[in-house]
């Protein structure tokens, strides 16, 4: 059974109450549940991890190597400056899809840069929590085509 790791970076544990005008009112548990449900329907196993700490995310990425088929990753603020996370993604064989709830390109200048994008398989942003689901649909499509 294919396996997907869903990784969430700093402050995403506060979704639901954090700047709802930008991120909406859906909680992280709701997002994980939506992903798990759709993935189960498609015969995909899921695992979820959120951390506010850069090193913990680096560890999670390293440990995912050879254990998962894809990673869906919202690195939150680390997206814009964490070379350690970028290097961890580059060091593993698992393709990573970068996601963001908001459209980072429409926001402050410092959010326009993703240091992860050059080593990610692709980037999906601005669709609200559906950014995660769009990443999952892309993975389902790829897995079906690979069969
Ligand atoms: C975010 C966008 C980032 O710029 C921000 O730091 C976040 C969330 C998003 O999902 O829109 O924490 O990754």
TrEMBL record:
The active site is at residues 23, 100. Its EC number is 4.2.1.10. One of its GO terms (biological process) is amino acid biosynthetic process. The record marks 18 as: Transition state stabilizer. It holds the Pfam family DHquinase_II. The keyword 4Fe-4S does not apply. Pathway: Metabolic intermediate biosynthesis; chorismate biosynthesis; chorismate from D-erythrose 4-phosphate and phosphoenolpyruvate: step 3/7. It catalyses: 3-dehydroquinate = 3-dehydroshikimate + H2O. GO terms for molecular function: 3-dehydroquinate dehydratase activity. Substrate binds at residues 74, 80, 87, 101-102, 111. Keywords: Amino-acid biosynthesis, Aromatic amino acid biosynthesis, Lyase. Catalyzes a trans-dehydration via an enolate intermediate. Homododecamer. PANTHER family: CATABOLIC 3-DEHYDROQUINASE. Belongs to the type-II 3-dehydroquinase family. This is 3-dehydroquinate dehydratase. It comes from Mitsuokella jalaludinii.
């Amino acid at each position: 059974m294919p396996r997907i790791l869903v990784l969430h970076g700093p402050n995403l544990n506060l979704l639901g109450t954090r700047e709802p005008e930008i991120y909406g009112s859906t909680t992280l548990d709701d997002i994980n549940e939506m992903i798990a449900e759709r993935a189960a329907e498609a015969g995909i196993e899921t695992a979820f991890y959120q951390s506010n700490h850069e090193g913990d995310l680096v560890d999670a990425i390293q440990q995912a190597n050879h254990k998962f088929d894809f990673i869906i990753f919202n690195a939150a603020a680390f997206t814009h400056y964490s070379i350690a996370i970028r290097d961890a993604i580059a060091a593993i064989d698992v393709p990573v899809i970068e996601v963001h709830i908001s459209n980072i390109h429409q926001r402050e200048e410092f959010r326009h840069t993703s240091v992860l994008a050059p080593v990610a398989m692709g980037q999906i942003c601005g669709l609200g929590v559906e950014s995660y689901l769009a990443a999952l649909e892309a993975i389902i499509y790829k897995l079906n085509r690979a069969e």
